[in-house]
Design goal:
The protein is mainly α. The chain contains 1 helix and no strands.
Length: about 50
């Protein structure tokens, strides 16, 4: 019974960690997309100022 409770607790902790990792991944992908969009905009302006 004690071992089963410990396994359940570890499973819950792993689930929380995985959720946190997924949230960080999503936010990072959003930031990368914004940077890519800005880089594309600057690439489009390059001939005007080059």
């Amino acid at each position: 019974m004690v071992l089963e409770k410990q396994v359940v607790n570890v499973d819950m902790k792993l689930t929380r960690l995985w959720t946190s990792i997924e949230d960080i991944k999503r936010k990072l992908e959003e930031r990368i997309t914004k940077v890519d969009e800005k880089a594309d905009l600057l690439d489009g302006l390059w001939p005007l100022y080059g």
